[in-house]
Amino acid sequence: MTILQRTSRPPAPQLHVSRRTFLKGSAATAVAIGVATLPSACAAVEKPAAGTSSGLLRKGKVIDCHAHLTHRSRATWEADDRKLIEAADKLGIDQLCCSILTPRRPATADGFRECNQWTADGMRRFPGRVLGYCYVNPGYGREALDEVRRYIGDRGFIGIKLYNEYICTEPVVFPIVELAIELGVPILQHASHSHYFVEDQPRMSDGGHLAELARRYPEAMLICAHISGGGDWEWTIKALRHAQNVLLDTSGSVIDEGTVELAAAVAGADRLLFGCDSSMTAGVGKIRGANLSAQDKEKILSGNMMRLLRRRKS
Amino acid sequence: MIIDVNAYLGHFAFRRLRYNTAASLLALMDSKRIDKAVVSSSGAITYRNAQAGNEEVTEEVRGHSDRLIPFAVINPFYAGWQDDLKICHEEFSMAGLRLYPKWHNYQLSSPCCRELVNAATERGMVISIPIRVEDNRQRSWLLNVPDVPLEEIVELVKTHPKARFILLNGIGYTRCPLGRKDNGLPSNYAIELSRLSAVLANELGQLITNLGAERVMFGTGMPFNYPDPALVKLEVLDASESDKEKIRSQNAMTWLRL
Predict the structure, then answer these.
(1) What are the φ and ψ backbone dihedral angles of A295, each rounded to 5 degrees?
(2) Which residues contact residue A152 at a Cβ distance below 8 angstroms, ignoring those fewer than 6 apart?
(3) pLDDT averaged over chain B?
(4) How far is CA A24 from CA A49, A174, A249, A253, A279, in A?
């Protein structure tokens, strides 16, 4: 078992010299390979990001709000983690907000503890590139709360990851939400809405549940995971229209044209977060392709996430 | 040059599509520097009489034949498909067709479908098969259309060695014979890249290694999809410029005799 080092904040990312510029944009590069650039996307991150006073959150940053390192039951975990960082290098993603999930759910307390230790180890192996979400099963009550305090309070994790052990409106989840409010960190909630019962995920949350939770806790910072991989994205976006403290993560493998634009029109670009959830070219491509202003893309790529991270209280 | 072998015109029953007219699709292609696109009717996916969609596409592409290459949608279980195929090929100048066995509720192995594949092959038409139209998790409450199992494609390409198939919107080829080296299958199919990974698992790179760059084609799925993810895949792909050029346009030009 690796001994964890105490770090209050991860250091600033070190840029890889070979990093490409898919989101930051280099017209010369794109012309050379014979494809169109989107000037708006290129310009977006060249401008100073509003309010980026923190050294950690420098201008032009691209933050993937939804990523995963590999569970170590998989023999190739170390190479897989390296591939994730290499992919981020190629695609111009500076930081990845990562969790590790147990292969089977519901997670046991030992299971999520192990995952969080490995995430912390990932933060050390890829300094400044990996930011950690603390994954817990709220059903473990005190143990889950202690885990959140340990990893967010002491070990520099940036938020909480909740999966499908409970629907997020179930009372067992409330203490976790209240602790997130106390610590000033976001909760990334796995979510999906399909027009059929998803048998293998009977306690799946959806945008409606997140809106209900947001009404109960208006001071909470909630993130609805993967609108582009969570069933009917039009339903999800509309369900979250009035839930001002829920942000929408654009990740997922679905690349339906118009998704990001609809989310921006209904929820506002201030509430969108760029993410991949391992669908890397899909995640990058849909933001690059979205017909939004440079300023809006800048918010989505990092500004909104940095705004969340600045609300941390500890 | 970039040729997109996976594009559409018209409406789709379950979601509004933008850029779905010839003029707007061409404007989108211009903004992405995509030179030509193979288009078929998205309406014909759910029309009972698919030929009505073929007629709509023919109207749309009129005057744009230098950039939009129309393909027919043919349902071999619908009355008069032989007449429709003849009209699409001879009057509408459609160089190929798209099959939707799951949406149109037939088996690729059925005698009617075999007859259609043979008839199209005799005409020198390319047959493309979208493995899916949209992600099944977001399906309407009205229907549940599965993806076309790749095992059924394996049987199809074996049964029709002289036919030429382009497989669209698929993934997982390397987990079945279609994407494996020395698979014993005829080299009568090409794989379009819109859903393939180009980093992490990098199925795109694996297919180039296993089958050769000659068997991979560029496609986006627009206007269902943003075209950019497919473009990004080509940009990050670790392949020679020569192989990339084959994928971008040369393979499609050869297959479509452009």
Answers:
(1) -65, -40
(2) A134, A158, A159, A160, A183, A185, A314
(3) 98
(4) 13, 39, 19, 22, 19
Q: Is there a contact between B18 and A84 if contact means CB atoms under 8 Å apart?
A: no
Closest chain A C-alpha to B19 CA, distance in angstroms: 9
d(CA A118, CA B43): 49
* B contact set with A (CB within 8 A): 1-2, 15-19, 31-33, 134-135, 137-141, 144, 195, 197-200, 221-236, 248
Biggest CA-to-CA distance, chain B: 48
Cα-Cα-Cα-Cα dihedral sign, residues B258, A255, A47, A158: negative
Reduced to 3 states, what is the DSSP secondary structure of residue A84? helix
Model confidence pLDDT, tens digit, residues B21-42: 999 999 999 999 999 999 999 9
Maximum separation of any 2 CA atoms in chain A, in Å: 57
- Indicate the pTM of the whole model: 0.90
Residue with tokens 């099944």: B136
Can you tell me the distance from the alpha carbon of A248 to that of A262, in angstroms, rounded to the nearest whole number?
Answer: 12
Round to the nearest angstrom and report the end-to-end CA distance of chain B.
12
Whether A285 sits inside 8 A of B140 (CB atoms) is no
Query: Which residues on chain B are in Cβ contact (under 8 Å) with A292?
Result: none
Pairing of strands A95-99, B126-130: unpaired
Residue spans of chain A under pLDDT 70: 1-22, 24-59, 314
State the Cα–Cα distance between residues A143 and A178, nearest whole angstrom.
Answer: 15
Minimum distance, in Å, between the CA of residue A9 and any CA atom of chain B: 28
Distance CA A126, CA A14 (A): 10
| Structure tokens given for B146 | 């599965």
Per-residue pLDDT tens digits for B96-111: 999 999 999 999 999 9
H-run or E-run covering A227 = none
- Written as six digits, the tokens of A291 are 């017909």
d(CA A151, CA A73) in angstroms, rounded, equals 22
HSE, side-chain direction, 13 A CA sphere, residue B40: 27
Sign of CA dihedral A189, A190, A191, A196: negative
List of residues 6+ apart from A224 with CB closer than 8 A:
A189, A191, A207, A210, A230, A236, A240, A246, A247, A248, A249
Express each pLDDT in B180-236 by its tens digit: 999 999 999 999 999 999 999 999 999 999 999 999 999 999 999 999 999 999 999
Cβ-defined contacts of A138-145 (< 8 Å, 24+): A138/A162, A138/A165, A138/A166, A138/A172, A138/A173, A138/A175, A138/A176, A139/A106, A139/A165, A139/A166, A139/A172, A140/A108, A140/A109, A140/A112, A141/A172, A141/A175, A143/A109, A144/A109, A144/A112, A144/A176, A145/A175, A145/A176, A145/A179
CA distance B118 to B112: 10
